[in-house]
Amino acid sequence: MSSSPPTSTPTPSGFTDRLRHFLHDEAAGGVVLVVAAVAAVVWANSPASGAYTSFWGHYLTLGWGPAAITEDLQHWVNDGLMAVFFFVVGLEIKRELVTGELRDPRAAALPAVAAVGGVLLPAAIFLALTSGPASAGWGIPMATDIAFAVGVLALLGKRVPVGAKLLLLTAAIVDDIIAIGVIAVFYTDTVSALWLAGAVASLAVVVLLRRLGVHAIWPYVLVGLAAWVCTLESGVHATIAGVALGLLTPTGSVGGRDVLDTLEHRLHPFSSFLIVPLFALANAGVDFRGGLFGEAMGSSLTWAIALGLVVGKIVGICAAVWLCVRTGLGRLPEGVRPLHVAGVSAVAGIGFTVSLFIAELAYTDPALVATAKVGIFTGSIAAAVLGVTVMVLAGRRGASGRSTGERSESTSTTP
Questions:
Q1: What's the pLDDT tens digit per position in 50-104?
Q2: Element housing 60 (H / E)
Q3: DSSP 3-state assignment of 62?
Q4: What is its subcellular localisation (predicted)?
Q5: CA–CA gap between residue 92 and residue 173 (Å, rounded)
Q6: CB under 8 Å to 167, separation ≥6 — which residues?
Q7: HEC letters along 231-290
Q8: Are 286 and 53 in contact (CB under 8 A)?
Q9: How far, in Å, are 65, 126, 203, 370 from residue 302 at the CA level?
Q10: What is the H or E stretch that residue 12 is in?
Q11: What is the DSSP letter of 158?
């Protein structure tokens, strides 16, 4: 047996660097997202509230002739720009599956099981508290807003161990995978088989271009645009095309460059600092005047969402993690204690962006949409406050434990 030390592969360090940049962008993007959301609420409740409604309701036509698409500005953001956001999500999912935590089944078991627990229980709580048309929004409390959640943990700095941040990020990505499936399957009204076939054919062309060794990006952009149009016209939400294209992006070196890394490096800041804040500005503007807030607080829909995001996420994730560790299916990351898991579970209840997105898909009644948004605001704020409180407590207990250990070691070594 050789006595030389084992050589380490460059992948882990490279992945750590990419993870650090990803977390930095998400944390900073979370701050911009908060500013945009506050601006939307202020605008919608100001004397210029009519301008808010009319601006985002203004129709814009792109294209010409039979190929022209007409949408209001809010839907251009939700259906168009958010496809880029979901493309970046697809890229990150692909990276996690190939080089990240999800590539190892045993390492992926804990965050995957945690995400499932944090999806099923919120949906169950929601369905138990709602009935009739309101029950269509059961997917709303399932979501976790990565930018907001990571931003909250970033505010706590070194009080949060790296393992806890990684657990949150990986579980949130699995949560995104589930949410994407829910949007595609359950929030699609009618499907045009012809247009859907066109979308599938466009994705097949992407695969063909890869097989032919096409390295230039512009052909993929054109085919990707065709896939987006076909998906939009098919009845399946257009953002699914973004996810599919992200998952088809190759990893590793292609034509002398890392395509996935290049695309993510270029698009992730654009997504975090422009697209997601624009989405918040277009969708978070709820006019609370005229008794809306009081009415919403008396609605079972509001509490179904809020309790799903807070109680459902905390109990669902904590129970799933406990079961996973107890059965030996997975183990906690280094430096992560049960109280950290509780804090991560609470922060995962910040469902702002994707929750708002699903609310717009689930309801056609403006009153239900407005009430759902109040529930999302209430639950997400409560989850953030509770998560910060638990994480601060976990940090103090950890510091207290280390101090006790140091004193004990000092006493035991005293002659």
A1: 999 999 999 999 888 777 888 999 989 988 998 998 898 888 888 878 877 677 7
A2: strand 59-62
A3: strand
A4: Cell inner membrane; Cell membrane
A5: 8
A6: 110, 111, 114, 332, 333, 336, 341, 344
A7: HHHHCCCCHHHHHHHHHHCCCCEECCEEHHHHHHHHHHHHHHHHHHHHHHHHHCCCCCCC
A8: no
A9: 44, 10, 39, 10
A10: helix 11-44
A11: G
